[in-house]
Known about the structure:
By secondary structure, the protein is of the alpha/beta class. Helix content is 31%, strand content 25%.
Amino acid sequence: MKNTLLKTxxxxxxxxxxxxxxxxxxxxxxxxxxxxxVDSGILFxxxxxxxxxxxxxxxxxxVENEERIVGLxxxxxHEDHIGSxxxxxxxxxxxxxxxxxxxxxxxxxxxxEHSDVxxxxxxxxxxxxxxxFKDVEISFIRLNHSIPDMFGIVFKxxxxxxxHTGDFKIDFSPVGPPAEYDKLAxxxxxxxxxxxxxxTNSEREGIIESDSKIGKSINELFSRISGRIIIATFxxxxxxxxxxxxxxxxxxxxxxxxxxxxxxxIEVGRQSGYIKIPKGFLLENEDLNKIPDHKLxxxxxxxxxxxxxALSRIADRSHRQIQARKGDTxxxxxxxxxxxxxxxxxxxxxxxxxxxxxxTHGPIADTHTSGHGSQHDLKLMLSLVKPKYFxxxxxxxxxxxxxxDLAIETGVHPDNILILDNGDxxxxxxxxxxxAGKVQADDIYIDGTGIGDIGSAVxxxxxxxxxxxxxxxxxxxxxxxxxxxxxxxxVSRGFIYMRGNEEITNxxxxxxxxxxxxxxxxxxxxxxxxxQKVIDxxxxxxxxxxxxxxxxxxxxxxxxx
Length: 561
Ligand SMILES: [Zn+2]
Ligand SMILES: [Zn+2]
């Protein structure tokens, strides 16, 4: 199926996730009827999505246009860029995945956890590789980020270069390999028609601290602590993990780590060489208690206050091997992602109750830096790449708007910038960049208990249940005789407490009784009509009495012959 929104020779650009949100990144580039997918991520929702573990992009467009898909190109191994790959592969046939460095290990690891998924071959690219397709050549530019092996993607087209940055910061003294600024300048001087750039920190002024500086400050911090150190960071931040390991060794501490994602990251990191732990410094968990406190660093997951992560359980004293106690120092080498502050505070409160020293990132202790460039970095990117047209990506709506302003400051014409939502299709041609139309790009909710995708209707129901409660009417009838056999009984959960509210309960039971009797007398009695009638009448009465709108469930047992 052709993309009918696009004119002949137009290049299509849109996202199925990542615009208006930080998460579930998935960008689509359509060049000469070929579909190139960049990233396939997940989004971790805040509390308002009840019981939902994550949100993934809507793959419907890709299902319908499967035969035109060339491949999935991965920028880096963060979950908001690779997390939905197993779900994508279940729905859509992808001929090939192109990924680099630890992204390859992380994807392979992920696929072993979803053994039902038939995985396509993974083509491992290096930063100097070039892939030729019809009317386009794809190449890569290494950039710095909070995870190793992050690559921006260049599409060299007839119209000029299209550059998708991926996630990046400018770090002139990175912990890992340096970014390829020369290549950025080169595509700029060749002519970049369109730039899509990371907007996460577009509201932040000033300089984002170099990762190597954080290493120094962690080392300095360690040298002042005399008890056990329990330190939490993102498992994917292998540079940070390595810095923590090095600081431990320098200060004569051995290292233990806890949390499933931390174990996985360390395994992948050691394979790829990003994490090095000299012999004798890695503790087996059973040896923990044999080591004096001042010789111990415990590296854990849970920097975001996640309730079941290692740190939360250590703070709860419900962890099997380690319990926080007086004399310990807990360091957060992270900042809370928006929405997680509450969970982090809960964990910190618990630690304070145990008289544990807590150090979070702040002016006194530099324990963390962002992996996303601030305004200064974003302007540098724009100035090097010099795009004619610009689409800010990877960010909530206000971040995209701020990024637009930065682009204008660096000389991009305001008319040449498009702010898009997920599903908005941009058409790029020699005549310019225009909004061409819209494709389906909903949020798909994944309930981790194995239910699979659940629709927004279920979310709405959960929301009503949590806010308004549930109200059941139980009645026994005989439909052949047209009789209500007992007075209906009422059960409520989370709506009103029944005891003490007998008056309301009675009134509602009487009302239900009237409705049911009347409905049973009707010539064309039907159980569904009866249920709907009970719901309608009770709903409006409850609204009058209580201003509430609970879910009403009529349970009718019909004892007809
Ligand atoms: Zn990232
Ligand atoms: Zn990201």
